[in-house]
Write a structure and sequence with these properties.
mainly beta, 5-stranded antiparallel sheet, 23 strands, globular
């Protein structure tokens, strides 16, 4: 789901592991390495159906880490997305992953599904999350006290469309009121999540981004068409047509002999 590296020590990294998605297994949770990946320790584990899918680290204090926990099992005929709020949602560590606290104040109390989370580098008290939830409680949440309490600030459907496939949120590293959501479309807020406007990208199905920490006008944004770069905050983009990213979704044959094979790209 995600990987975060300690900026003080390149040998220390954390992985959010969803686990094998087709059944119960223990390879789920947050894993930590202190020796550059030679060995790993599982530092957060909920149960054999519940993994972690997102991580956020406070760059000013890398011992402060947030994990988005997701109960997900993929069946041939459906996807099971979401589990009870007393297990799923957001967890926080203040000691580099040694111990974790389940955050609850202001977050949904029913079922919680996929979770995306990020910390504002310019104001680490400000934490954003976008999450899937039952009872109309899905949407963008914001904390202004480092996760101690949360409020649902935006329930716009486009921010949480098809949540198992998207659900990504990224805070601007210089402006605590600016935040992006990647979904079927690509959205930006400049009022701390109260409202979002769409930004056109070269291709739909937007899956994530990296923002230049020194100049947030420069970022790389990824989607089902590939990766595109902007130098001006998304007003223009590099091309996606330099990347061989053809994706075959379905295959069919007809009734001729010999038959022809067809692919939906």
């Amino acid at each position: 789901g995600a990987i975060r590296t300690d900026p003080r020590d390149a040998n220390v990294a954390y992985v959010a592991a969803l686990g094998q998605p087709f059944g119960t297994n223990a390879e789920r949770g947050v894993f930590r390495t202190k020796d550059g990946g030679k060995t790993w320790q599982k530092v957060l584990y909920i149960n054999d159906k519940t993994g972690t899918v997102s991580l956020a680290m406070n760059p000013a204090n890398p011992n402060e880490i947030y994990a988005g926990v997701w109960q997900a099992v993929r069946k041939p005929w459906t996807i099971i997305s979401g589990g009870p709020a007393n297990e799923c949602g957001i967890y926080k560590s203040t000691d580099g992953g040694e111990t974790w606290k389940h955050l609850e104040n202001g977050l949904p109390q029913g079922l919680i599904g996929k979770v995306g989370i990020d910390v504002s580098a310019s104001n680490p008290q400000r934490v954003y999350a976008v999450l899937e939830a039952s009872e109309g409680q899905g949407g963008v949440y914001r904390s202004d006290d480092a996760g101690a309490s949360w409020q649902l600030i935006n329930k716009t459907g486009g921010l949480i469309a098809r949540p198992f496939y998207y659900t990504y949120i990224n805070a601007d590293p210089k402006n605590p009121d600016a935040v992006y959501v990647n979904n079927l479309n690509f959205f930006k807020s400049t009022d701390a999540g109260k409202s979002f406007r769409p930004i056109a990208t070269p291709h739909g199905d937007n899956q994530g981004m990296w923002i230049n920490p020194d100049n947030p006008e420069i970022f790389i944004q990824s989607n089902d068409g590939g990766a595109n770069v902007t130098l001006n905050g998304g007003r223009s983009w590099s091309t996606i047509y330099n990347q061989p990213t053809g994706e075959i979704y379905q295959v069919a044959v007809d009734n001729q002999f010999p038959y022809l094979v067809y692919g939906a790209q």
